[in-house]
Amino acid sequence: MQNSASVPLYERSAMELSLGIHCQQFSCQEVMSAFLGHIARLNPQFNAIVNLRDTDELLREAKAADEALRLGQSKGWMHGLPIAVKDLAQTAGLATTMGSVLLKNNVPKEDCFMAARMRQSGALLMGKTNTPEFGLGSHTFNALFGTTANAYNPQRSAGGSSGGAACALALRMLPVADGSDFMGSLRNPAAWQNIFGLRPSQGRIPNLPSSELFLTQLGVEGPMARNMADLCMLLGTQAGYSHQFPLGLESSSPAFSQDLFDLAHDKALPDASLSGTKVGWLGDLGAYLPMERGLLTQCERGLERLSSAGAHVEDLAPNFDPERVWAAWLTLRHAYVAHRLSPLMGLPNAQEHMKPEALWEVQAGLNIKAIDFLNASQTRSLLYQKLLSLLQQYDVLCLPSAQVWPFAKETHWPKSIDTPRGTQTMDTYHRWMEVVTYATLAGLPTLNVPAGFNDEGLPMGIQLIGQPKGEVALLKIGRIYEAHIKDWLSIKPPILNSI
Questions:
Q1: Mean pLDDT by groups of 10 residues along the chain of 499 residues
Q2: Is residue 40 situated within a structural domain?
Q3: N or C terminus of the chain with fewer C-beta within 10 Å?
Q4: Which one, of 200, 217, 186, 205, lies nearest residue 335 by Cα?
Q5: Do 200 and 220 contact (CB within 8 A), yes or no?
Q6: Pure H helices in 98-183
Q7: CATH assignment of the domain containing 384
Q8: Is residue 492 part of a domain?
Q9: Which domain holds residue 441?
Q10: Would you say residue 113 lies in a domain?
């Protein structure tokens, strides 16, 4: 067994780093130096972290964090931990570009709610993590920074839009990371890089600042981590309540954070059983969703691990009309994206600097009638009611986290899916991500958990969809499941074995 003292600092979990810093086993400066050195080795090849700040400046901040600790002034469990925030999230004093050349000089004056919470807990912001242009599409590439590679195969996509975050985490360039999820933007890259990622309930982490507070609720921010304990701790930091966010959850209080703290530190959970837990496996929705060859089989190996943990898994037919849901999704997404991007259309040469998919979304959104929007919202409401009826019979619902394996990074998006039933053409740039839309529309907490690797060494994951506002119960299931996939979690990205 490897001596813990010989484990590089960048290899350690966030909780291990936090304990070591607070026990003065090592300093914040040593931790910062270790991560910066590791980033310098790997980031040029994988391009996960962008707008990395000046090394001397970061080391000065780490030194100040050490001096504060010597005076007994810890800001929280993240004190001295290096982080990089997703480049869709607003960060004070550091450019937030959204992967667009139109915003390359956009330097906000204040942090978003989530970034502020992490900084208030002591995290040191090193830079940003790469994202697709405007976060559109589950493949992280843009004209400003380039393409992020998959941690397990640098010739493949890292997914997106939290691709930079997922890649950096898997490669140990970050101890934990934030992501955001509109159409699987957190779940898909987590699945493709063998890590955990939670899409929280809508309102759990207030989307602040925002010019629109009532309707644009499909996108949420959330935590990503290499282990469940770190994930619980990070969610406890990111979540909160603000009266400025009218649809926020007041239960996101100190009591909620304490529940997550207890969950992260419960040493008995890995040996606990999921006996009595009922899992409804929706699979490909009765052959409705095209799935690339071998993908469902691999996901079912994850179900076997749930069963070995004591859960009762049942195949489940969908009780909703997926095609109607997809039509509603297109309407709502068009409207939300158009609302977000149309202000940029007045910038000089805006259309020349926006990818075709973004222009398509904006144009479609501008043509939507109010009645169409409300009808789509009605379909969304019906889907929620249908899923709620299933969740009265099952503790969690389960779906694959993606419909394809990580594809060649030069490919902008899969034009077709090679399924066991033949090749199926995709009619939009995001149709191949349809499997993630149901949890998004229902606003339900959804946890991506690793489900192993195919013969090419490419990872896959499954979505566990929990009860309304049921993060704590869902994460408890995730912690128990984690103990049954240690063999998968022990498989590191190949490049780490050569360092």
A1: 77 98 98 98 98 98 98 98 98 98 97 98 98 98 98 98 99 98 98 98 95 93 98 97 92 84 97 98 98 98 98 98 98 97 94 97 98 98 98 98 98 98 98 98 98 98 98 98 98 96
A2: yes
A3: N
A4: 217
A5: yes
A6: 113-120, 163-170
A7: 3.90.1300.10
A8: yes
A9: 17-498
A10: yes
